[in-house]
Amino acid sequence: MRVLLVEDDIALGDQVVEHLEGIGCEVEWIKDGDEARGEDSTEYALIVLDLMLPGTYGMELLKIFRSQGDVPVLVLSARQDTSDKVRALKLGADDYLTKPYWPEELVARVRARLRRPELRREDGRKKVGAIVLDEGARTVEVGGASIDLTKAELDVLLALAKRPGSAMTRRALVEAALEQGSERTLDVHVSRLRKKLGDAGGQIATVWGIGYKLLEELPDE
């Protein structure tokens, strides 16, 4: 798996590279934000991104990478303010790990991000918890039973399923899934979608102040 590391701290970068190579990753390490903005994020399985960088700021890089595709982005930052975490999630980050951190935690989070696409795909279909989606056939099943969804409901679910476990803003969901409508319209579609999915509707979680995310398994009661 190719991983892009964007980190200007030499000592920390050396440590990250050592640990990621130790689990079989091929790491491309860039130490400058301006240089990183020229990278094609689609060539990587994961991006590990610092925020405080010389040149282009990490949040701006996050916006650029997210505009290129859905490659998972793990933010590493010494900034621990909740507002920074929320902003990173709104811009499309999949995870946020504050410094200092335990190397074992970094490795665990990287492993989780790298293995998810392989675990979800079955015969061309994508399984997320109890929900099985076939984007090509535009079908959804729960427990082997087909679920009848409207086009808008299906498009919302497919948008969330592209990056399970990661929050999407309500505005981003409106733009990705609804040909026309508002954030209020989106909320109505999500409410109906949850009901049609039955117990599996609990996988669509509200992320307060941001939007929604699709959990990778049913939440504990």
If you average the pLDDT, what whole number results? Answer: 87
Major sheet summary line: 5 strands, parallel
Arrangement of strands in the largest sheet: 2-1-3-4-5
CATH class of the largest domain: Alpha Beta
Describe what you observe in this structure.
The model has no long low-confidence stretch (mean pLDDT 87). The chain has helices spanning 10-22, 33-36, 58-68, 82-90, 103-120, 151-161, 170-177, 183-197; strands spanning 2-6, 26-30, 46-50, 73-77, 95-98, 121-122, 125-128, 131-134, 139-142, 145-146, 168-169, 204-207, 211-214. It has two domains: 2-119, Response regulator (Rossmann fold, 3-Layer(aba) Sandwich); 123-214, Winged helix-like DNA-binding domain superfamily/Winged helix DNA-binding domain (Arc Repressor Mutant, subunit A), CATH 1.10.10.10. Strand 12 (204-207) and strand 13 form a beta hairpin. The chain is 40% helix and 23% strand. The protein is an alpha/beta fold.
Describe the SSE topology.
Layout (H helix, E strand, L loop, with lengths): L1 E5 L3 H13 L3 E5 L2 H4 L9 E5 L7 H11 L4 E5 L4 H9 L4 E4 L4 H18 E2 L2 E4 L2 E4 L4 E4 L2 E2 L4 H11 L6 E2 H8 L5 H15 L6 E4 L3 E4 L7
Parallel strand pairs: 1-2, 1-3, 3-4, 4-5
Antiparallel strand pairs: 6-7, 7-8, 8-9, 9-10, 11-13, 12-13
Index terms:
Rossmann fold; alpha/beta; Arc Repressor Mutant, subunit A; 221 residues; 23% strand
Summarize the structure.
This protein is α/β, with parallel strands linked by helices and 221 residues long. It contains eight helices and 13 strands. Strand 3, helix 3 and strand 4 form a beta-alpha-beta unit.
